[in-house]
Amino acid sequence: MNKLTAQLASVPDRDNVVYEIYSGSVQVAEVSNEPDTGLRIEIFSCPDPSRIWSFDFNEFHALVEQAKRNIVG
User: Fold this and answer.
1) Which of 15, 57, 9 is nearest to 65 (CA)?
2) What is the CA radius of gyration of the chain?
3) N or C end of the chain: smaller count of CB under 10 Å?
4) Are 31 and 41 in contact (CB under 8 A)?
5) pLDDT tens, per residue, the chain with 73 residues
6) How far apart are CA 27 and CA 16, in angstroms?
């Protein structure tokens, strides 16, 4: 199981920076805080159709809370 990591990113289709969550080199989720929608999380499908995402709850929760602290102004 890969360790979860995260980074702030500036992407062209968003007004504000986003917080990207990765498992290894594969993006799992993106947390954004856009003017018209507020704080949201988009969770991406697992690229391997024979598997599902499965993460340690506390690790994932900590990254989501870190995202909130970093992108809410």
Assistant:
1) 57
2) 12
3) C
4) yes
5) 679 999 999 999 999 999 999 999 999 999 999 999 999 999 999 999 999 999 999 999 999 999 999 998 6
6) 19
